[in-house]
Amino acid sequence: MENKFYNELSKFKKAEKVELNLIRTAEETIYELNQNDDLMQYMTNAQAAIEKGKRELNRLEAVQRIGERILKDLQSASKDLGVDIKEEKELIKAIKNFEDRRKRANKLFN
């Protein structure tokens, strides 16, 4: 009889420990979920970075349009003079590189 009593008491203590651990874990989880200041800051920073990126992309698109006009003039001058202009090739390469980056940026922003 006494043995049975200790077995029941032992089961009760184990159950109590499990419940206390669950409560402690629940409290820690509640605390972590309520500490979302970092998440909000990351979201704000990400949104600000995207807006800056969009503005920079718009600026560079305008520069690209100017570069394409300059390239057209360089190609015309190069043809008229019958010489190769080093900057013409560099400008073609720069415009192409920007086009690739612009496509990647548009995928990210949209």
Unreliable sequence segments: none
Distance between the first and last residues' Cα: 74 Å
Main sheet attributes: strand count, strand direction, barrel closure: none
Protein structure class: mainly alpha
Helix content: over 70%
Overall, the morphology is rod-shaped
The number of strands is 0
The gyration radius over C-alpha positions equals 34 Å
**Strand content range:** under 5%
Q: Give the rounded overall mean pLDDT.
A: 86
Order of helices and strands: HHH
Please tally the helical runs, counting DSSP H or I stretches of 4 or more residues: 3
SSE topology sketch:
Layout: H1 2-34, H2 37-81, H3 86-109
Helix pairs in contact: 2-3
Summarize the structure.
The chain is mostly helical. The chain has three helices and no strands. It is 93% helix and 0% strand.
